[in-house]
Amino acid sequence: MTELTAPKSSVTAAQFADEIRNELKYTQGVTPEQAKPADIYVATATAVRKHLMDSWMKTQQDMINGNTKAVGYLSAEFLMGKQLRNALLNSGLTDQFYAAVKELGFDAQEVIDAEYEPGLGNGGLGRLAACFIDSLASLGVPAFGYGIQYRYGIFRQEFDEEGRQVERPDYWLTNEDPWGHIDYARDQRVNFGGEVVEEAGKRVWKPAWAVRAIPVDYMVPGYESGRVNTLRLWQARSYDEFDLLTFNKSEYLDAVKPQVKAEDISKILYPEDSTEVGKELRLEQQYFFASASLHDAIRVFYGDAEKPDLTTFPDKITFQLNDTHPVIGIPELMRILIDEYGYDWDTAWDITTKTFNYTCHTLLPEALEVWPASLIGKLLPRHLEIIEKINDQFMHELEGLTDDEAKIERMRILTAGENPSVRMAYLASYAGSHVNGVAELHSQLLKDVTLRDFSDIYPAKFTNVTNGVTPRRFMKLANPGLSALITEGLGTDKWLEDLELLKNLEPLAQDDEFVKKFAKVKYDNKVRFADFAKSEYGFKLDPTTMFDTMIKRLHEYKRQALKILEVIATYADIKSGKVKVEDVTPRTVIFGAKAAPGYYLAKMTIQLINNVAKVIDNDPDVMGKLKVVFPWNYNIRVAQMLIPATELDEQISQAGKEASGTSNMKFALNGALTVGTLDGANVEIRERVGADNFFLFGMTVDEVDKMYESNYDPAKFYEADPRLKTAIDMVADGTFSNGDKETYAPLVSDWLTKDWFMTLADFTAYHDIQSQIETLYADQLEWNRKAILNVANSGYFSSDRSIEDYLDRVWMTGPLPTEK
Ligand code: 26V
Question: What are phi and psi of 222, to 5 degrees?
Fold first, then answer.
């Protein structure tokens, strides 16, 4: 039997160098002399993949032959980040890599930099999926990640002369992708369109067109587990070769139309945009990967058996629906079971409901997907019939469970009336075994508000699994200095597998020597980020200033506006002499954010931040005291540099709007203090790290609700706080737009008349807490003690713990048995 990959590979550096030379020669046809860093990167990746191959194959065999139920994580997004260092870490080849590359005469950093980061996700939801598949493999749980290999990932962000966001295509696949293996032999046919006819008493779908789904497999190596799982991303290809008849008529463009249409399906990642759903192509994408993945799982577990016993399917694999994006998989599994395998409705329903679980990642009603029934009928006519039947069955079931007719009506999956639509979150909540939110507060609000009727009727379905992040990437790889210090402090590096061990750092927060070492690590990380920002962006950052960071998608509810208004007010305080220059805590305020291309106010906020940065930078009065930078194209790589360098983390969303947040966890684990509202996972972070070690401000969910009820009027807050008034007036009067009063007029008008997320109402509290922050920051020893307490008490936020919670509460499975 093949041995599982040893935690530390026994391969020597010299052997690994030979392997790299071999790949260069026999795979790439390049001599070491001709090689560029990009060649070395590809050769190394190929060599590492070979090291993982035995464990990968063995993990699959053990999964298929054993009795451990697997997990299928269905997600439209996997935001993986660069793979090389993570793969080296998990295959125990890191030291060998550095030595081998040196022997070959290359700079390791240049080799690492040659990898192009795939951006196959928008933000938190996609990154969570990547952390989860890392943890599944690290815990030894057999699992598949299933998604789409988009040809274009999230747009590359640039800023123009005026500081506006410009979106550029991210054609990442023009670069070599040595990690992905295209498996043409395991393709799947995905049908679309056409009609349903009655044949011999059966409903038969006659599709109009089909797409070929080809899997691209990525290995997902576990840390110290010897297990390697699979991320299977589907590529859409056409079946139709050139239509010769049309081609001969020289109508070339028409001849390739079917190819273009088919291949469009996996062409581009939809940029998250809560205001603009309902795109036909997006539904095609969703069905494309849901259908291919379900068929694939059947093939994996039952081979090509003609009449497999699919009543055992839920014992083989459980599927997690990552938000509503793959929910069309529910009627698809019903259709597969009934139409392709001949099961009756009730048996199919029983199998399907045991197979799926649903995670909701939002609280914004506009982000819950709803599809027009007419669109589903056009693309997937058989599925519409099935959804109608599910809805009928559901209505019938409800009539037996409640007399509340209004409630039954509210719960319809298929809405009544002239233009009916399908509510995907409701379909998932009815058909799924379990429904979960992503932080305690969020899960509670789902039960109390968003999915209240469902939780009333099916209380046992509802549970919480608080999000987590992988400590391998976001501590070990991102923050080697802190990782080494933690290992020194604990006397072991086992914390990377059992993050709760960090708790044992707590006493060291009282040890001044340790605190000073910790402060030194933070300072070094700031210097490292300053160097990076200089070479990458041309910014000049002063590492002796406080690094105050806000990184997340640009959304009104996240309230980047609150931060920038406070910066402007501080700027005005210094300018007017209200605050003496010598009393100012020097700060570097760092923003990272992409705005959805169609999100007007979000894009305007980016423009404002950039121009505030510019005005402040050109003003000698605040030199050395206040600086704002906005590194463009924020991505995983930048996150890995910036989070370890941050001292103050901004988590300032309006209470009740951020489902969880995950950067808040990364920051706490890397020793930043948080300024935040009682929202999402902030609540749990504060409970764990202690109220004294967290800067809380702002309205609670209840206070927000009351304020909505009492007809919130932002103008009152504008009038009541002179600092706020000054800041808004400066935006309005053209201070940040070369005197032009029109540039930000829509933003100003929104603040003063709508301000849906109550930025103005929380402004004064936000300023007060910032003053407290500055007081504490003046005492560096105290500050760093609290930062250490954040690290020590954040072990709970490992994605390993999240996965263990899913295993216990939702999936009811566990790791593959290990051999002695
Ligand atoms: C919606 C849409 C709408 C149409 C086009 C593409 C698209 C892509 C994503 C979404 C929904 C995004 C929901 C989301 O990202 N939620 C975030 O999930 C994180 C992980 O659970 C959580 O930490 C964040 O608080 C939550 O905002």
Answer: -80, 155
Residues 479 and 453 in one domain: no
Two structure tokens written together for 190: 């995905």
Q: Please report whether residue 812 resides in a domain.
A: no
- Active site residue ranges: 361, 552-553, 558, 662, 666
Q: Can you list the alpha helix ranges (DSSP code H) found in 619-762? A: 636-642, 663-669, 682-689, 701-709, 714-720, 722-732, 745-753
Q: Is the CB of 467 under 6 A from ligand 1?
A: yes
Q: What CA–CA distance (Å, rounded) separates 314 from 68?
A: 11
User: What is the per-residue pLDDT across 442-498, written as a single tens digit (0 to 9) for each?
Assistant: 999 999 999 999 999 999 999 999 999 999 999 999 999 999 999 999 999 999 999
Q: Kindly state the tokens that stand for 443.
A: 């899960």
Do 173 and 55 belong to one domain?
A: no
Distance CA 42, CA 23 (A): 8
CATH number, position 262 = 3.40.50.2000
Ligand 1 atom with least separation from CA of 128: 20
Residues 477 and 377 in one domain: no
Whole-model pTM: value is: 0.97
**Smallest Cα–Cα separation from 412: which of 432, 435, 429, 433?**
429
Answer whether 548 contacts ligand 1 (Cβ < 6 A): no
The crossing angle, in degrees rounded to 10, of helices 124-138 and 799-806 is 80
* Residue 778 structural domain: 472-804
Total domains in the chain come to 3
Report ipTM (2 d.p.).
Answer: 0.96
- Amino acid residing at 650: E
Residue with tokens 């560096």: 780
Residue 89 domain flag: no
The rounded Å distance from CA 125 to ligand 1 centre is 5
